[in-house]
Amino acid sequence: MNTKHHIIALLLGIAYLFAVIWPIGLGAAIAIPAQWLAPWVQETPILAFAVVNLVSLGLPMLLVLVPLVLILRYCWAPEGRLPYLLLLVPFLVMELYYLLVMPMLTGQSPLFALGTNLPKDLVLVLATLALARLLRPKPGLQAGTA
Questions:
Q1: What UniProt keywords are attached to this protein's entry (predicted)?
Q2: Which terminus in the chain has less CB density within 10 A, N or C?
Q3: 142 in any annotated domain
Q4: Tell me: the pLDDT tens digits for 63-122?
Q5: Is 7 left (phi over 0), alpha (psi -120 to 50) or beta?
């Protein structure tokens, strides 16, 4: 039974990977005035771009992830946290590819790419774990009882 939940979680993860393309495109198109970022960029450019990345990409991606976590929980009710983490595996593999290959192609610093993308990815993983913990069945309650 657990294998079925893991496969379903991976399939939902692939659906998530395709579903976040639109929010990533919108987030990348957001124009942020240079006056807002100039003080931050002078002091800590990685932090400035990490915050922008988290707000413009991370939050919309989290909004796409929450319904998939709820679908996984209420349609298949998996036990444990592994199916919820498997939901993120396709996206995190794509992010790993991005972090390894893109700095070589663009000449960008790998540390800069890691520093700007890691907060967004950590928020997604931590939010998924928090939702898995919040939505887990209470001990002693059976399905259909309040």
A1: Membrane, Transmembrane, Transmembrane helix
A2: C
A3: no
A4: 999 999 988 888 877 777 888 889 999 999 999 988 888 888 888 888 888 888 889 999
A5: alpha
CA atoms within 13 A on the CB side of 59: 8
pLDDT of residue 33: 82
In a domain, 143, yes or no: no
Give the tens place of pLDDT for each residue, 48-63: 888 888 888 889 999 9
CB contact at 8 A, 28 and 61: no
User: In the block, which residue shows the tokens 């395709």?
Assistant: 18
- The domain tally of the chain equals 1
Q: Which residue is listed with tokens 């709820």?
A: 70
Distance of CA 43 to the CA centre of its chain: 27
Is residue 61 in some structural domain?
yes
- pLDDT at residue 103 in the model: 82
Range of the domain at 35: 2-135
Using CA atoms, how far apart are residues 142 and 136, in angstroms rounded to an integer?
12
In a domain? residue 10: yes
Contact between 7 and 78 (Cβ < 8 Å): no
